Protein backbone atom coordinates (compact mmCIF):
# COMPACT_ATOMS: atom_id res chain seq x y z
CA UNK A 1 0.00 0.00 0.00
CA UNK A 2 1.29 3.45 -0.95
CA UNK A 3 -0.53 5.69 1.51
CA UNK A 4 0.47 9.06 0.08
CA UNK A 5 -0.61 7.99 -3.40
CA UNK A 6 -3.82 6.28 -2.40
CA UNK A 7 -5.38 8.64 0.14
CA UNK A 8 -5.66 12.35 -0.54
CA UNK A 9 -4.54 13.89 2.73
CA UNK A 10 -3.80 10.48 4.18
CA UNK A 11 -0.34 10.66 5.60
CA UNK A 12 -0.26 12.80 8.70
CA UNK A 13 2.57 11.01 10.38
CA UNK A 14 4.95 8.22 9.53
CA UNK A 15 7.54 7.67 12.25
CA UNK A 16 10.09 4.94 11.65
CA UNK A 17 11.65 3.91 14.94
CA UNK A 18 14.80 2.07 15.94
CA UNK A 19 13.51 -1.45 15.38
CA UNK A 20 13.05 -2.86 11.87
CA UNK A 21 9.65 -2.32 10.27
CA UNK A 22 8.42 -0.32 13.26
CA UNK A 23 6.45 2.56 11.80
CA UNK A 24 3.12 4.23 12.23
CA UNK A 25 0.87 5.79 9.63
CA UNK A 26 -2.07 7.81 10.78
CA UNK A 27 -4.80 7.52 8.14
CA UNK A 28 -6.68 10.74 7.52
CA UNK A 29 -9.69 10.68 5.23
CA UNK A 30 -12.55 13.18 5.68
CA UNK A 31 -15.28 10.70 4.72
CA UNK A 32 -14.04 7.96 7.06
CA UNK A 33 -13.58 10.39 9.95
CA UNK A 34 -17.07 11.82 9.37
CA UNK A 35 -18.57 8.33 9.37
CA UNK A 36 -16.80 7.47 12.62
CA UNK A 37 -18.02 10.71 14.14
CA UNK A 38 -21.60 9.84 13.20
CA UNK A 39 -21.24 6.43 14.84
CA UNK A 40 -19.53 7.88 17.92
CA UNK A 41 -21.89 10.79 18.51
CA UNK A 42 -24.70 8.98 20.41
CA UNK A 43 -22.38 7.10 22.76
CA UNK A 44 -20.16 10.13 23.33
CA UNK A 45 -23.23 12.21 24.12
CA UNK A 46 -24.39 9.54 26.58
CA UNK A 47 -20.94 9.75 28.20
CA UNK A 48 -21.24 13.52 28.56
CA UNK A 49 -18.67 14.16 25.82
CA UNK A 50 -18.99 16.19 22.63
CA UNK A 51 -18.43 14.54 19.26
CA UNK A 52 -17.11 17.91 18.06
CA UNK A 53 -14.32 17.81 20.64
CA UNK A 54 -13.33 14.14 20.58
CA UNK A 55 -11.50 13.05 17.43
CA UNK A 56 -11.84 9.44 16.29
CA UNK A 57 -8.63 8.75 14.37
CA UNK A 58 -7.47 5.69 12.46
CA UNK A 59 -4.03 4.09 12.62
CA UNK A 60 -2.94 2.00 9.64
CA UNK A 61 -2.32 -1.31 11.40
CA UNK A 62 -3.83 -4.75 10.74
CA UNK A 63 -3.97 -5.66 14.43
CA UNK A 64 -7.04 -5.27 16.62
CA UNK A 65 -6.47 -2.39 18.99
CA UNK A 66 -7.96 0.86 20.27
CA UNK A 67 -6.73 3.32 22.86
CA UNK A 68 -7.00 6.86 24.17
CA UNK A 69 -4.20 9.41 24.35
CA UNK A 70 -5.98 12.25 26.07
CA UNK A 71 -9.51 13.53 26.64
CA UNK A 72 -9.81 14.62 23.02
CA UNK A 73 -8.59 11.67 20.96
CA UNK A 74 -9.63 8.04 20.49
CA UNK A 75 -7.48 5.91 18.19
CA UNK A 76 -8.72 2.83 16.34
CA UNK A 77 -6.54 0.45 14.36
CA UNK A 78 -7.79 -0.08 10.81
CA UNK A 79 -7.65 -3.84 11.41
CA UNK A 80 -10.14 -3.52 14.25
CA UNK A 81 -12.61 -1.55 12.12
CA UNK A 82 -12.42 -4.14 9.37
CA UNK A 83 -13.10 -6.96 11.84
CA UNK A 84 -16.30 -5.37 13.15
CA UNK A 85 -19.44 -7.02 11.77
CA UNK A 86 -22.00 -4.37 12.68
CA UNK A 87 -22.19 -0.79 13.97
CA UNK A 88 -22.95 -1.85 17.55
CA UNK A 89 -19.61 -3.66 17.78
CA UNK A 90 -17.68 -0.58 16.67
CA UNK A 91 -19.78 1.69 18.89
CA UNK A 92 -19.05 -0.56 21.86
CA UNK A 93 -15.31 -0.06 21.37
CA UNK A 94 -15.78 3.70 21.18
CA UNK A 95 -18.01 3.64 24.28
CA UNK A 96 -15.38 1.67 26.19
CA UNK A 97 -12.60 4.09 25.24
CA UNK A 98 -14.84 7.05 26.08
CA UNK A 99 -15.30 5.49 29.52
CA UNK A 100 -11.54 5.61 30.08
CA UNK A 101 -11.81 9.36 29.50
CA UNK A 102 -14.84 10.03 31.66
CA UNK A 103 -13.65 7.75 34.48
CA UNK A 104 -10.44 9.76 34.82
CA UNK A 105 -8.09 6.97 33.80
CA UNK A 106 -5.94 9.47 31.92
CA UNK A 107 -5.18 11.70 34.90
CA UNK A 108 -1.78 10.06 35.34
CA UNK A 109 -0.90 10.76 31.72
CA UNK A 110 0.64 14.20 31.49
CA UNK A 111 0.67 14.72 27.74
CA UNK A 112 -2.31 16.37 26.06
CA UNK A 113 -2.12 16.09 22.28
CA UNK A 114 -4.64 18.75 21.30
CA UNK A 115 -3.21 21.31 23.71
CA UNK A 116 0.45 20.52 23.06
CA UNK A 117 2.33 23.81 22.92
CA UNK A 118 4.80 22.73 20.28
CA UNK A 119 4.89 20.44 17.30
CA UNK A 120 7.73 18.61 19.02
CA UNK A 121 5.48 17.70 21.94
CA UNK A 122 2.93 16.33 19.47
CA UNK A 123 5.67 14.32 17.82
CA UNK A 124 6.55 12.83 21.19
CA UNK A 125 2.98 11.68 21.77
CA UNK A 126 2.75 10.17 18.31
CA UNK A 127 6.07 8.42 18.76
CA UNK A 128 4.43 6.82 21.75
CA UNK A 129 1.51 5.83 19.59
CA UNK A 130 3.97 4.09 17.27
CA UNK A 131 4.94 1.88 20.17
CA UNK A 132 1.32 1.20 20.98
CA UNK A 133 0.66 0.32 17.36
CA UNK A 134 3.37 -2.28 17.74
CA UNK A 135 1.62 -3.43 20.92
CA UNK A 136 4.40 -2.42 23.29
CA UNK A 137 4.06 0.28 25.89
CA UNK A 138 7.72 -0.06 26.83
CA UNK A 139 8.76 0.30 23.20
CA UNK A 140 6.78 3.54 23.16
CA UNK A 141 8.70 4.72 26.21
CA UNK A 142 11.97 3.93 24.48
CA UNK A 143 10.93 5.88 21.39
CA UNK A 144 10.33 8.96 23.51
CA UNK A 145 13.58 8.67 25.49
CA UNK A 146 15.33 12.00 25.80
CA UNK A 147 12.09 13.94 25.40
CA UNK A 148 9.74 12.71 28.08
CA UNK A 149 11.66 9.75 29.55
CA UNK A 150 9.69 7.61 31.96
CA UNK A 151 6.54 9.65 31.40
CA UNK A 152 5.76 7.49 28.38
CA UNK A 153 6.31 4.16 30.16
CA UNK A 154 3.18 2.02 30.12
CA UNK A 155 1.39 5.04 28.65
CA UNK A 156 -1.33 3.04 26.96
CA UNK A 157 -1.90 0.15 29.34
CA UNK A 158 -4.82 -0.17 31.75
CA UNK A 159 -5.28 -2.10 34.98
CA UNK A 160 -7.95 -4.74 35.38
CA UNK A 161 -9.80 -2.40 37.74
CA UNK A 162 -9.84 0.30 35.07
CA UNK A 163 -11.05 -2.19 32.47
CA UNK A 164 -13.91 -3.38 34.67
CA UNK A 165 -14.94 0.20 35.36
CA UNK A 166 -14.78 1.07 31.64
CA UNK A 167 -16.83 -2.03 30.79
CA UNK A 168 -19.55 -1.00 33.22
CA UNK A 169 -19.62 2.61 32.04
CA UNK A 170 -19.43 1.64 28.38
CA UNK A 171 -22.45 -0.66 28.69
CA UNK A 172 -24.34 2.15 30.41
CA UNK A 173 -23.48 4.61 27.64
CA UNK A 174 -24.56 2.14 24.96
CA UNK A 175 -27.86 1.46 26.72
CA UNK A 176 -28.55 5.17 27.13
CA UNK A 177 -27.72 5.75 23.44
CA UNK A 178 -30.03 2.96 22.27
CA UNK A 179 -27.19 0.81 20.93
CA UNK A 180 -27.56 -2.98 20.95
CA UNK A 181 -25.54 -4.22 23.95
CA UNK A 182 -24.83 -7.50 22.21
CA UNK A 183 -22.22 -5.54 20.24
CA UNK A 184 -20.04 -5.37 23.37
CA UNK A 185 -20.44 -9.10 23.97
CA UNK A 186 -19.47 -9.84 20.37
CA UNK A 187 -16.32 -7.72 20.67
CA UNK A 188 -15.31 -9.45 23.88
CA UNK A 189 -15.88 -12.78 22.19
CA UNK A 190 -13.27 -11.86 19.56
CA UNK A 191 -10.62 -11.76 22.25
CA UNK A 192 -11.55 -14.84 24.26
CA UNK A 193 -8.58 -17.10 24.85
CA UNK A 194 -5.98 -14.34 24.45
CA UNK A 195 -4.58 -14.96 27.94
CA UNK A 196 -3.55 -18.50 26.96
CA UNK A 197 -1.42 -17.22 24.06
CA UNK A 198 2.19 -16.14 24.36
CA UNK A 199 2.74 -12.39 24.57
CA UNK A 200 4.02 -12.17 21.01
CA UNK A 201 0.91 -13.89 19.63
CA UNK A 202 -1.65 -11.82 21.52
CA UNK A 203 -3.55 -9.05 19.78
CA UNK A 204 -2.34 -5.59 20.78
CA UNK A 205 -5.71 -4.96 22.41
CA UNK A 206 -5.09 -7.81 24.84
CA UNK A 207 -1.77 -6.31 25.87
CA UNK A 208 -3.15 -2.83 26.58
CA UNK A 209 -6.60 -3.95 27.84
CA UNK A 210 -6.26 -6.90 30.27
CA UNK A 211 -8.68 -9.66 29.28
CA UNK A 212 -9.99 -12.72 31.03
CA UNK A 213 -12.78 -15.25 30.85
CA UNK A 214 -14.24 -13.65 33.98
CA UNK A 215 -14.31 -10.31 32.23
CA UNK A 216 -16.13 -11.77 29.23
CA UNK A 217 -18.75 -13.31 31.55
CA UNK A 218 -19.07 -10.02 33.40
CA UNK A 219 -19.69 -8.03 30.21
CA UNK A 220 -22.26 -10.59 29.08
CA UNK A 221 -24.00 -10.37 32.47
CA UNK A 222 -24.03 -6.56 32.32
CA UNK A 223 -25.62 -6.70 28.87
CA UNK A 224 -28.22 -9.30 29.84
CA UNK A 225 -29.19 -7.33 32.94
CA UNK A 226 -30.56 -4.52 30.79
CA UNK A 227 -33.73 -5.73 29.13
CA UNK A 228 -34.82 -5.12 25.57
CA UNK A 229 -33.06 -5.06 22.22
CA UNK A 230 -33.26 -1.67 20.48
CA UNK A 231 -34.43 -1.46 16.90
CA UNK A 232 -31.64 -1.12 14.33
CA UNK A 233 -30.60 2.46 13.62
CA UNK A 234 -30.69 3.07 9.83
CA UNK A 235 -28.22 5.96 10.10
CA UNK A 236 -25.74 3.86 12.06
CA UNK A 237 -26.13 1.01 9.56
CA UNK A 238 -25.42 3.40 6.69
CA UNK A 239 -22.37 5.13 8.17
CA UNK A 240 -20.90 1.83 9.34
CA UNK A 241 -21.29 0.38 5.83
CA UNK A 242 -19.80 3.49 4.24
CA UNK A 243 -16.87 3.82 6.66
CA UNK A 244 -15.89 0.17 6.58
CA UNK A 245 -16.62 -0.02 2.84
CA UNK A 246 -14.33 2.85 1.93
CA UNK A 247 -11.55 1.73 4.26
CA UNK A 248 -11.62 -1.81 2.91
CA UNK A 249 -11.74 -0.56 -0.69
CA UNK A 250 -8.42 1.23 -0.12
CA UNK A 251 -6.82 -1.50 1.98
CA UNK A 252 -7.96 -4.65 0.18
CA UNK A 253 -7.09 -5.49 -3.40
CA UNK A 254 -9.30 -4.05 -6.16
CA UNK A 255 -10.23 -7.60 -7.18
CA UNK A 256 -11.42 -8.34 -3.63
CA UNK A 257 -13.45 -5.11 -3.55
CA UNK A 258 -15.10 -5.59 -6.93
CA UNK A 259 -16.24 -9.06 -5.88
CA UNK A 260 -18.00 -7.53 -2.87
CA UNK A 261 -18.98 -4.00 -3.90
CA UNK A 262 -22.70 -4.50 -3.30
CA UNK A 263 -22.55 -6.28 0.05
CA UNK A 264 -23.57 -3.20 2.06
CA UNK A 265 -26.98 -2.89 0.39
CA UNK A 266 -26.53 0.87 -0.18
CA UNK A 267 -26.27 1.90 -3.82
CA UNK A 268 -24.14 5.01 -3.29
CA UNK A 269 -21.71 3.00 -1.14
CA UNK A 270 -21.54 0.37 -3.88
CA UNK A 271 -20.70 3.02 -6.47
CA UNK A 272 -18.14 4.69 -4.21
CA UNK A 273 -16.34 1.40 -3.60
CA UNK A 274 -16.44 0.59 -7.31
CA UNK A 275 -14.90 3.99 -8.07
CA UNK A 276 -12.08 3.39 -5.59
CA UNK A 277 -11.33 -0.08 -6.95
CA UNK A 278 -11.16 1.15 -10.55
CA UNK A 279 -9.08 4.15 -9.52
CA UNK A 280 -6.57 1.89 -7.82
CA UNK A 281 -6.30 0.04 -11.13
CA UNK A 282 -5.61 3.40 -12.81
CA UNK A 283 -8.82 2.97 -14.82
CA UNK A 284 -10.18 6.52 -14.94
CA UNK A 285 -12.63 5.53 -17.65
CA UNK A 286 -14.53 3.40 -15.11
CA UNK A 287 -13.70 5.21 -11.88
CA UNK A 288 -15.08 8.58 -12.95
CA UNK A 289 -18.54 7.35 -14.11
CA UNK A 290 -18.89 5.39 -10.86
CA UNK A 291 -18.15 8.34 -8.58
CA UNK A 292 -20.33 10.60 -10.75
CA UNK A 293 -23.20 8.15 -10.38
CA UNK A 294 -22.73 8.19 -6.60
CA UNK A 295 -22.75 12.00 -6.62
CA UNK A 296 -25.95 11.99 -8.70
CA UNK A 297 -27.61 10.20 -5.77
CA UNK A 298 -26.14 12.52 -3.11
CA UNK A 299 -25.37 15.77 -4.90
CA UNK A 300 -24.64 17.75 -1.73
CA UNK A 301 -22.32 15.17 -0.21
CA UNK A 302 -18.99 16.97 0.21
CA UNK A 303 -17.10 13.74 0.84
CA UNK A 304 -18.08 12.23 -2.52
CA UNK A 305 -16.94 15.42 -4.26
CA UNK A 306 -13.68 15.17 -2.28
CA UNK A 307 -13.18 11.60 -3.52
CA UNK A 308 -13.87 12.77 -7.06
CA UNK A 309 -11.16 15.39 -6.57
CA UNK A 310 -8.73 12.75 -5.34
CA UNK A 311 -9.38 10.49 -8.32
CA UNK A 312 -8.82 13.37 -10.73
CA UNK A 313 -5.78 14.72 -8.86
CA UNK A 314 -4.04 11.37 -8.80
CA UNK A 315 -4.89 10.93 -12.49
CA UNK A 316 -3.14 14.28 -13.18
CA UNK A 317 -6.36 16.01 -14.21
CA UNK A 318 -5.40 19.01 -12.10
CA UNK A 319 -7.91 21.66 -13.20
CA UNK A 320 -10.81 19.25 -12.94
CA UNK A 321 -9.54 18.23 -9.49
CA UNK A 322 -9.47 21.88 -8.40
CA UNK A 323 -13.13 22.22 -9.39
CA UNK A 324 -14.11 19.04 -7.54
CA UNK A 325 -12.24 20.00 -4.38
CA UNK A 326 -13.66 23.51 -4.65
CA UNK A 327 -17.20 22.11 -4.61
CA UNK A 328 -16.32 19.94 -1.59
CA UNK A 329 -14.89 22.97 0.24
CA UNK A 330 -17.99 24.98 -0.63
CA UNK A 331 -20.14 22.30 1.02
CA UNK A 332 -17.83 21.81 4.03
CA UNK A 333 -15.91 25.09 4.41
CA UNK A 334 -14.53 24.22 7.87
CA UNK A 335 -13.28 20.70 7.19
CA UNK A 336 -9.48 20.82 7.54
CA UNK A 337 -8.81 17.70 5.45
CA UNK A 338 -10.91 18.96 2.54
CA UNK A 339 -9.30 22.41 2.75
CA UNK A 340 -5.85 20.83 2.75
CA UNK A 341 -6.61 18.73 -0.32
CA UNK A 342 -8.11 21.78 -2.06
CA UNK A 343 -4.99 23.81 -1.28
CA UNK A 344 -2.78 21.01 -2.59
CA UNK A 345 -4.68 20.97 -5.89
CA UNK A 346 -4.51 24.76 -6.19
CA UNK A 347 -0.76 24.61 -5.59
CA UNK A 348 -0.37 21.99 -8.33
CA UNK A 349 -2.36 24.26 -10.63
CA UNK A 350 -0.02 27.18 -9.97
CA UNK A 351 -2.56 29.22 -8.00
CA UNK A 352 -0.05 29.80 -5.22
CA UNK A 353 -1.68 32.60 -3.24
CA UNK A 354 -5.08 30.92 -3.23
CA UNK A 355 -3.39 27.66 -2.25
CA UNK A 356 -1.59 29.32 0.65
CA UNK A 357 -4.85 30.77 1.93
CA UNK A 358 -6.63 27.41 1.89
CA UNK A 359 -3.66 25.58 3.35
CA UNK A 360 -3.35 28.07 6.19
CA UNK A 361 -7.05 27.62 6.92
CA UNK A 362 -6.46 23.87 7.08
CA UNK A 363 -3.42 24.26 9.35
CA UNK A 364 -5.25 26.57 11.75
CA UNK A 365 -8.09 24.05 12.11
CA UNK A 366 -5.91 20.93 12.41
CA UNK A 367 -2.20 21.38 12.95
CA UNK A 368 -1.45 17.65 12.86
CA UNK A 369 -1.36 17.22 9.08
CA UNK A 370 2.27 16.93 7.96
CA UNK A 371 1.25 17.17 4.31
CA UNK A 372 -0.40 20.54 4.89
CA UNK A 373 2.79 21.80 6.57
CA UNK A 374 4.83 20.56 3.63
CA UNK A 375 2.54 22.10 1.00
CA UNK A 376 2.20 25.38 2.87
CA UNK A 377 5.99 25.61 3.17
CA UNK A 378 6.24 25.15 -0.61
CA UNK A 379 3.65 27.87 -1.19
CA UNK A 380 5.43 30.31 1.16
CA UNK A 381 8.77 29.60 -0.54
CA UNK A 382 7.28 30.20 -3.98
CA UNK A 383 5.90 33.52 -2.75
CA UNK A 384 9.36 34.50 -1.48
CA UNK A 385 8.56 34.09 2.22
CA UNK A 386 11.63 32.02 3.08
CA UNK A 387 11.36 32.62 6.80
CA UNK A 388 7.83 31.23 7.10
CA UNK A 389 8.76 28.34 4.80
CA UNK A 390 11.57 27.46 7.23
CA UNK A 391 9.24 27.64 10.25
CA UNK A 392 6.76 25.29 8.64
CA UNK A 393 9.50 22.89 7.62
CA UNK A 394 10.88 22.95 11.18
CA UNK A 395 7.43 22.15 12.55
CA UNK A 396 7.02 19.31 10.08
CA UNK A 397 10.32 17.73 11.13
CA UNK A 398 9.56 18.28 14.82
CA UNK A 399 6.19 16.59 14.46
CA UNK A 400 7.93 13.57 12.98
CA UNK A 401 10.35 13.48 15.92
CA UNK A 402 13.32 14.64 13.80
CA UNK A 403 14.46 17.38 16.17
CA UNK A 404 17.97 17.76 14.75
CA UNK A 405 16.54 18.58 11.33
CA UNK A 406 13.89 20.75 12.96
CA UNK A 407 16.58 22.75 14.76
CA UNK A 408 18.39 23.53 11.49
CA UNK A 409 15.28 25.03 9.92
CA UNK A 410 14.17 26.79 13.11
CA UNK A 411 17.57 28.49 13.37
CA UNK A 412 17.28 29.54 9.75
CA UNK A 413 13.78 30.94 10.40
CA UNK A 414 15.02 32.85 13.46
CA UNK A 415 17.54 34.66 11.29
CA UNK A 416 15.04 35.50 8.56
CA UNK A 417 11.95 36.59 10.53
CA UNK A 418 11.47 39.79 12.56
CA UNK A 419 12.26 39.21 16.22
CA UNK A 420 9.06 38.81 18.22
CA UNK A 421 6.85 38.08 15.20
CA UNK A 422 4.44 35.09 15.41
CA UNK A 423 6.60 33.02 13.06
CA UNK A 424 9.76 33.85 15.02
CA UNK A 425 8.07 32.76 18.27
CA UNK A 426 7.04 29.46 16.64
CA UNK A 427 10.68 28.91 15.69
CA UNK A 428 11.73 29.55 19.31
CA UNK A 429 9.29 26.89 20.49
CA UNK A 430 11.00 24.37 18.22
CA UNK A 431 14.45 25.39 19.43
CA UNK A 432 13.36 25.11 23.07
CA UNK A 433 12.01 21.61 22.43
CA UNK A 434 15.23 20.61 20.68
CA UNK A 435 17.26 21.92 23.63
CA UNK A 436 15.10 19.97 26.09
CA UNK A 437 15.65 16.78 24.10
CA UNK A 438 19.43 16.96 24.34
Automatic annotation (TrEMBL):
<feature type="domain" description="Peptidase M48">
    <location>
        <begin position="36"/>
        <end position="222"/>
    </location>
</feature>
<dbReference type="InterPro" id="IPR019734">
    <property type="entry name" value="TPR_rpt"/>
</dbReference>
<keyword id="KW-0482">Metalloprotease</keyword>
<dbReference type="Pfam" id="PF14559">
    <property type="entry name" value="TPR_19"/>
</dbReference>
<dbReference type="GO" id="GO:0008237">
    <property type="term" value="F:metallopeptidase activity"/>
</dbReference>
<protein>
    <submittedName>
        <fullName>M48 family metalloprotease</fullName>
        <ecNumber>3.4.24.-</ecNumber>
    </submittedName>
</protein>
<feature type="repeat" description="TPR">
    <location>
        <begin position="302"/>
        <end position="335"/>
    </location>
</feature>
<keyword id="KW-0378">Hydrolase</keyword>
<keyword id="KW-0862">Zinc</keyword>
<keyword id="KW-0802">TPR repeat</keyword>
<dbReference type="Pfam" id="PF01435">
    <property type="entry name" value="Peptidase_M48"/>
</dbReference>
<keyword id="KW-0645">Protease</keyword>
<dbReference type="InterPro" id="IPR011990">
    <property type="entry name" value="TPR-like_helical_dom_sf"/>
</dbReference>
<comment type="similarity">
    <text>Belongs to the peptidase M48 family.</text>
</comment>
<dbReference type="InterPro" id="IPR001915">
    <property type="entry name" value="Peptidase_M48"/>
</dbReference>
<keyword id="KW-0479">Metal-binding</keyword>
<dbReference type="InterPro" id="IPR051156">
    <property type="entry name" value="Mito/Outer_Membr_Metalloprot"/>
</dbReference>
